[in-house]
Design goal:
Keywords: FAD, Flavoprotein, Monooxygenase, Oxidoreductase. Helix content is about 25%, strand content about 25%. It is α+β, with helices and mostly antiparallel strands. The strands form seven sheets. It has a seven-stranded mixed beta sheet. A six-stranded mixed beta sheet has the order 8-2-1-12-21-20. The chain starts with a strand and ends with a helix.
Amino acid sequence: MDVLIVGAGPTGLTLGIDLVRRGVDALVVERAEGLFPGSRGKGIQPRTQEVFEDLGVLDAIRAAGGPYPARTIWKDGERLGEQPMFEAVAADEGAPYTEPWMVPQWRTQEILYARLVELGGEVGFGREVTGLEQDADGLSVRFADGTTVRARYVVAADGGRSAVRRAVGVGMAGETVDPNPFLVADLRLKGLDREYWHTFPRADGTGVALCPLAGTDDFQLAGRLPEGTEFDLSLDGIRKLVAAYTHLDAEDVTELRWASEFRPRTALADRFRVGRVFLAGDAAHLHSPAGGQGLNTSVQDAYNLGWKLGAVLRGGAPEAFLDTYEEERRPNAAAMLGLSTGVHRGEVQRGKATVQLGLGYPESSLSEETRAVPSGVRAGDRAPDGRVDGVRLFDAFQGPHWTLLGATAPVAGVRALPAAPESYGPGVFLVRPDGYVGWAGDSTAGLPAYLDRVGCR
């Protein structure tokens, strides 16, 4: 096979979808017997919504969730007021999605899994990777049941305790974000409305919050608890916790669906590539959950890697082209780690900084700006939406191809539109398959040389 993806979380499933639609022979394997059951990464940022639109799952994602409610603060059984969870970001033609969309992680994964199967892909559940060996032609991957699989490339999307990362000897340096232990759980309860994200803070900085999970009958409980807390993740234990921190009675918690404890920390893998092995998602970077950056950054990893693997395996691009994955994604992940830590500590407001629309790759070797006087959108920037001759750009971008804006002469394998929206500024723009401007020029004069250089012609 071409690519073995280890881990069926949002990262692995996104990558599986992207590779299968490119005609790449890819298999996703997952140690567990089924998909992850919890709501943990519930925020789908606007940039991820754009990715999901390209992959054909956005309608299902939007139908499965809803916007975030405002936060209301409680003290001694009384409401003290309310405030929005995010500072507003104005929508415009170039950014049709500007607010995070709440979808429990388990539901996001169900949608991604269904799309993968629809495209002809599959997930092998109950398949635990125990080791691998690389050679000049590929990798031999061993499983706990004694079987082996041969693949040209392996992608570690198997989480923060990644077995694949350990197998290739990549370190992961990080720090504790908060000394206090945290708890997250999905439950059902009575006694609270579903119009608000209910928070119950204490003077010592501990507290719990109960957020109605859009598209479900559940609430997500999140708690920052005192140091030294001994967790009881049973229904009785969660009931006692809710009764201790809120005005609700223990019996108001009617069902516990999932629970987990953790200590917020950040960590970044020393490398994102070791030969034929690539690290993505939590296997490459760990975030505080504050600000909703972890799942979204992970999806961006998969989206960046997918088209590059497709270019090498099906498009004739050179092997060295895959080096740009680490070149682009590791600095981006490092920046997101700093951002999520800042949100956790109250130094950064959720909003414009966290929607990921401003992320790009201006320093990448794949970004070539050749205009004499660049203005507007530049090489390395996210390519905004818009319309050209009645064609919506995001519709034109959808699919595994490159798109040329501002020139009528088609290039093989590239879709061409005769103009770019005024918001782009003057020039000709070549948009990569992942929606970023790779090359910009005053004319098409340097375009063939660029495509030859990146090996995508």
